[in-house]
Specification:
By secondary structure, the protein is an alpha/beta fold. Helix content is 54%, strand content 11%. The strands form two sheets. Strands 2-1-3-6-7 form a five-stranded parallel beta sheet, sandwiched between helices. A two-stranded antiparallel ribbon has the order 4-5. A hairpin with a 2-residue loop joins β4 and β5. α5 runs parallel beside α9 and α9 runs parallel beside α10.
């Protein structure tokens, strides 16, 4: 289990380097258009600083992360699972209705780890802002308290709703505003931090598995770079939060879909299809066993 967890952490950390390269290029391009000379030295200095930090970054060693080297508790032989979050956790786009939640459970059972789904509390279109108050509801708290394993998918609507590309969890015909796309990240990632902290307060012992974001519009030329930057930046921020808790893990999905959207996205061009969900479920099962 621990080795699988480090495989995903290493994979996710590699995306940090990609993020920095894309982010530096994106910032430079915007500044070159708006103010070709004014801020170039500052931008370069920030890019160099970010790269320097990435080169020395090690998972679980962020400042103030005393838990980074702690060993997570062993999971029980029979797992009780609660899923919560947005339409991906619900399985939208999968014509079987299984999504990654039920597929993960099936794979765990096939691998000899007895697992059962207690509750799937996912809601289409849910954002971090919408999820936080729900964590105060008695029924939701009870479902989380009873779980040994909590599967969480959240953040895609925070990112893409703000861009105008998605409304209520469905892809639309809006035009991308790169500034809004990137501007949404700081507040949304802070809400993700609060979400994870509240889940941990509700259940101090459960393993929490967070499903990272992918870029569903990467096949559109004008959306490729800003979308990659935004998604990679989000995943990096999420990883820094998650690495502070030895009993949380982030499952990367960016590489699953990149360059393969026609194979793994459903007809709505936003959610995975059955095969896409299956690949996510495989990673979840590997990260748990």
């Amino acid at each position: 289990m621990n080795s699988s967890k480090w495989i995903w952490r290493i994979t996710a950390s590699v995306s940090v380097i990609v993020t920095i390269i894309l982010l530096a290029g994106f910032i430079y391009a915007v500044q070159d258009i708006n103010a070709p000379q004014a801020d170039s030295a500052i931008s370069q200095g920030n890019a160099d600083k970010s790269k320097e930090e990435a080169d020395t970054y090690e998972p679980g060693t962020e400042a103030g992360s005393a838990e980074g080297t702690a060993k997570p508790p062993e999971l029980p032989e029979q797992l009780k699972i609660t899923a919560i979050g947005d339409s991906l956790a619900k399985g939208t786009g999968d014509n079987t209705g299984s999504g990654f939640v039920r597929r993960s459970i099936e794979m765990l059972n096939e691998g000899g780890r007895k697992s059962e789904l207690l509750n799937n509390l996912a809601i289409n279109g849910l954002t971090t802002e919408g999820l936080l108050p729900k964590l105060e509801e008695k029924g939701i708290r009870y479902a989380l308290e009873q779980a040994d394993l909590i599967l969480l998918s959240i953040g895609g609507n925070d990112l893409f709703d703000s861009s105008g590309l998605v409304k209520n969890g469905q892809a639309g015909a809006g035009e991308l505003d790169p500034k809004q796309l990137v501007a949404a990240i700081p507040k949304a990632s802070e809400r993700l931090k609060l979400t994870l902290e509240r889940i941990r307060a509700i259940n101090p012992d459960a393993k929490v598995v967070y499903v990272g974001l992918y870029h569903p519009f990467a096949d559109l030329k004008e959306l490729l770079l800003p979308g990659n930057v935004a998604v990679s930046t989000w995943n990096h921020a999420a990883l820094q939060i998650i690495n502070r808790d030895p009993n949380m893990v982030m499952i990367p999905t960016f590489d699953i879909f990149q360059g393969k959207l026609d194979k793994y996205l459903s007809s709505d061009h936003f959610h995975p299809n059955g095969e896409g969900y299956r690949l996510i479920a495989e990673r979840i099962a590997q990260g748990i066993q």
